[in-house]
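Appendix B, example 12.
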Amino acid sequence: MLNSMTDCEEGEGGPNSQGDGNPKESCPFINSTAVTDVEKSQQYENKSMALFEEEIDTSPMVSSLLSTLANYSNLPTGSKEHEEAENNEEGARPSKKPVKAPQLGTLMGVYLPCIQNIFGVILFLRMTWMVGIGGVFGSFIIVFMCCSTTMLTAISMSAIATNGVVPAGGSYYMISRSLGPEFGGAVGICFYLGTTFAGAMYILGCIEILLIYIIPQAAIFKIEGLEGPEAEIALLNNMRVYGTIVLSFMSLVVFVGVKYVNKLALVFLACVILSILAVYAGIIKTAMEPPVFPVCLLGNRTLVSKAYDVCAKVVEIDNETITTRLWRSFCDSDSLNATCDEYFTNNNVTEIQGIPGVTSGILAENLFGNYLKKGMTVEKRGLASNVDPDSTPSNTNRYVLADITSFFTLLVGIYFPSVTGIMAGSNRSGDLRDAQKSIPIGTIAAITTTSTVYMSCVVLFGACIEGVVLRDKFGEGVNGNLVIGTLAWPSPWVIVFGSFFSTCGAGLQSLTGAPRLLQAISRDGIIPFLRVFGHGKANGEPTWALLLTASICEIGIIIASLDSVAPILSMFFLMCYMFVNLACALQTLLRTPNWRPRFKFYHWALSFLGMSLCLSLMFICSWYYAIVAMGIATCIYKYIEFCGAEKEWGDGIRGLSLSAARFALMRLEEGPPHTKNWRPQILVLVSVDAEQKVEQPRLLSLTSQLKAGKGLTIVGTSVQGSFLSNYTEAQMADQSLRKLMETEKVKGFSQVVLSSNLRDGTSHLVQTGGLGGLKHNTVMVSWPHNWKQPECYQHFRNFIEVVRETTIASLALLVPKNISSYPSNGERFTEGHIDVWWIVHDGGMLMLLPFLLRQHKVWRKCKMRIFTVAQMDDNSIQMKKDLITFLYHLRIDAAVEVVEMHDSDISAYTYEKTLIMEQRSQILKQMHLTKNEMEREIQSITDSSRGSIRRKNPHTLRPQHSAEGGSLVEKTDDRSEAVSDPKQVQLIHNRNASKPTGSPAATSAGGAATWTDGKSTEKGKILSARTPEGGRDHLSMKPEWENLSQVDVRRMHTAMRLNEVITKKSKEAKLILLNMPGPPKNRTNQTNPMHNTVYQDYPFFADIQVMIFLGFGCLLAFFRLYGFGGMVFNFLTATFAIQWAILVQGYFQFYQDGKIHLGVINLINAEFACAVVLISFGAVLGKTSPLQLLVMALLEVPVFAVTEWVVLKYLRINDAGGSILIHLFACYFGLGVTFVLYRSGLSEGHAKENTSYYSDILSVMGTLFLWVFWPSFNSALTLKGDDQHRAILHTFIGLSASTLTAFALSALLNKNGKLSMADVQNVTLAGGVTVGASVDMMITPAAAYALGMLGCIACMLGYKYLSPFLARHCRIQDQCGIHNLHGLTGLISCAAGICAILMADEEVYGPSMYEIFTHRAPVEGNPKLHELQMLIPGLRAGLGRTAREQAFFQVAALFSTIGLSALGGIITGYVLKLPYLASPSDDFCFDDVLFFEVPPDYDSPLHLCNRTATEESAA
């Protein structure tokens, strides 16, 4: 309230002050400025709620406000305005009488009109025919479909109607106020046309009843004696004449007044109700006493009743056979010997009951349809007929024929108008007392009533009436009676007259509603040429609209066929109903605050179902009529859109636009756009002058020329000041931007930011521009003007910050230089070139810019030239070929030139330029100046540098254009440009800032003026400008050049040369585009060595090294005479296998750019491959030479690498612990080798195949090494963090379980109850293998323990039973039992892993599941992937596999690995059998003496054992 202090409250000394600072009592406004305005104060006293004087025109009086609230009606926006306009128009005519308030209620205004329209012409004239043609089933489906559609539409309509007052033209208002004026007008016109054609259809039905059933003699064009098309034309002409007469009469009645229509409606409705009751009474009567309505059949063909007097060929009168009239119809004379029609001769005449009754069982015959083609005879089913298929039908006029070709969709189109009367009440909503209440209740009640009648009539008609009678459309076979009338009781005339008056009433209702609908549309003013039809009589009756309606209705009368008119109006009604449902569904889904219907029994799903039914029925009825109707609606829609009055009704389409925009923005948030969808979304940063005018208007011209990509454009500027004080200036700047954008035809948004300084304002624009995913990806800013001048220093500093901020934000930066020289949108280049200097690869944006520019008329005739730079080591010819190929794939036509940058001598100028840069940086680093001091010192250094350069080379230094080279570039005469570089100011602003080492080559349109990162130079002798030596020319000191970094000097030289080349090559170009790298993100150029992965991976590498060389080596030394061989051959094989695996695996997995990249991970993978070889080595331990082992490693590693590559690249499995790829592969490869190397001499064992006390101790040491470091083996390549943590825990638990179980089983299975060292050495390790496949998954500790126990049991039983079996029966001599420790346990591990995969879900794992099971992650482009990446940064796209699919691939990998390993092992075994590989003989197996120099007593334990055994046997 402090800022509301006004002149009334100026306080002490104010003009209105009374000494105490209080305002006068007579001042009614807080901010009243006049002391003497007492009269004005009294004028507003107690009448207005205005707090301030300027609000008096907008704030209402207290009484009027309360009155408005009490009479709140929630009238839809738009309808009230046109009613007020009408009242104002009438107010100008005092002679007019006031319009009487509407008095119609629900019964009279809605229910009865709906009943009368629905029970119109179709029920009485076509219902029985439809049942006969379509069958009871087919007809019931049609009726149910149509009634369901209208019921769903009525529910939607009720919701809309109870959401506010529905004035005159109710259905139109429902749609227009819900979907907008365009949809409302289009659908309103269509509904108007449908209602108008409905009037024509009712009139045609009325005339059909009159001329066919009541007074056939009244026909002007006589039908008697005419046949075929002539009779049809005569009937149509009669319909046209009488239809026009009836239309004129009805129009006159409607013109007189709607009250007469309402009075007549009761009479007409009474006839309808009586007729329906008569039908039901007749149906009931047929159950007791069926009426006598005989139908005569010839064969199975129905005869026209006019063709016979007696249903017989001849009759017996006084024992004399006399021919009948029927005979004469088919024969050429009365004689019995006359020549007759062949069909007449061959078939008998029978008479059947036309209405056999409801209990006759005729329903079964009428259940299914009997569709006829035009001209076919109506035949009875199941009745025999003798007809010659080759004969030509004759005397067809004697039979009842089908007048049209019938099919299911035709029946739908003809029947649907019988349910279209549901809006008869809403069309007359202007005459209703309470439309909001009456429309829902009356409409739904009427639909329920009529639907019940229709569905029951379908069944009852099929159960009562003979099929041939049902298919007789005009009753020709029942003496010309109305078919439904034959069923009525007490007389057919009840139905005839009832239906006649019903159609008359329905026609009057249509002629009443249609003009009012047109009047409502016209008064809204959305269709300009229809405004004349909004006028009417003094009482509001739409006179002109009635005249137009009658004229259009006459078109339907001219068509003259009820069956042809019905599908036409079905299209218009269905389209209207479809949009009513759409409007309700849209409002419900949008949940707008104003959507509060009193009718609660609606749902958006019901509305969508109704809309779908409407659309389906449109195309079912007639697909071409549907297309025409949609075309008409589309034309009207576009006309209103372009020419109609702009209306804002708060409609759902506007709400839908907001929702669609929100949805689209949310979709954009789901992930980055695909490369194909990328386009420049430009933020244009402009500056404004003191008058808030844009200083660089050509920036917007360039933006407009770049917008062939049709992307987002935001034009932003910053205004200095505060929001409270300078808001007006910001508004002026915004208006200036909008006006310039309109002038330059830039489609986008303007944004003005108020900030305390321009630098922060620009930063805010870069950070906050756009909304959600619709953000800019490119920033365009002009090169700072006069940046060398001291007064423009701040502008250049701001520019440098924009460069840095766009780099940090990963945005592209466009820097057009000398923007004032750019062409406007009105200019044209007839020739010239756009030169592209491709210096740094940027993903293709540099190629995209000229393509976009050339889409604009300004640059269309310019040709592209692309230059790239080749250094001394580059092959310029190959570079040109590659670039041409690249452009071909990009589909860009351009000339290509490769510029060779020769390594010429470095000039003294280059050294001077580099030295200045170094000195600036080093001086400021040592001075530790404040911000202001640093800026002053920079300026002094700059001035000193300029002076020294001029003193040194005043005559040789020529202008350099390193930053201004190219076309459309300002040519400067400042000779110090390349020396003094104010761009350094901001770059060295911070003490640790990175120094620029290259000249910013910014061109007239392109690329960011950016810098590369340079290395720090050695600190030489630094002289401050404030020292006594400050006036000395430091640059003349040649020795100081030697202290410069040659890398920095070389970069400066390259930049200088490049600018010279650009200036030379592109001198005549219209535009030059080049790209430069961004400034360094790491300004200090320091890294944390602890971030190197070696510190994370090396401990695992060391642990696995211990397992390979100590664990396996000691474990394989368990034979008493093969200790050297077990350990040394393990050492030899492991060393060779690791080196060989680095090369082979490197080729498949780490090969890039012709090189194999090495790292600790490579070594770990190589050690895994080595472990595979050593496990396989265990199967042939003691039976192979070192050369054989090396050959086996030489062959096994490539097979393993290929298998690993196939499984990991194509099958994509989870195998963290290597159960499949390491253990199973090694096991079955080794078994394949030993199978081929089978030695029959060792089948019963070998004398040296035993252990000793010391060898077992050594082997147990190897077991301990493996046991201790096995967790590292299983967790080395798992994800760091929780996954690795789980792997370590699960491995330890599994090993512990297998160890305890091994000790227990060893004692249990030994006859003496003692422990076996073989069990301790091998079985204790089984748990490490069995948990391998699921080691990083979320299995419980209990599961890991159970797997350890299970693996131990399998391994123990394998050693005891399976290994001897394989040796005896399968020729597999497994020396170390690798099949037990690695094969069986590996299979168990795979099964456990598959179970864990099948049970894995997000409920247990959370989002981290997709890190463990990477191939189950969503595919690229899936919205869920973006959500997961927000939770887990760095998550990569997967294959979108399900758990079952992943388990299937695990199984496939299992069998593939076993198959490939076994095959590779067998092949390797045959290679090892080659004689020159020095395989040991059976006698020297398991003995070191063959390959090693051994001590003399190495076999003493064996001799002692043999001697002891001999003595015991002798004793």
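The two ends are 124 Å apart (CA to CA). The domain at 1094-1399+1442-1490 is CATH 1.10.3430.10 (Ammonium transporter fold).
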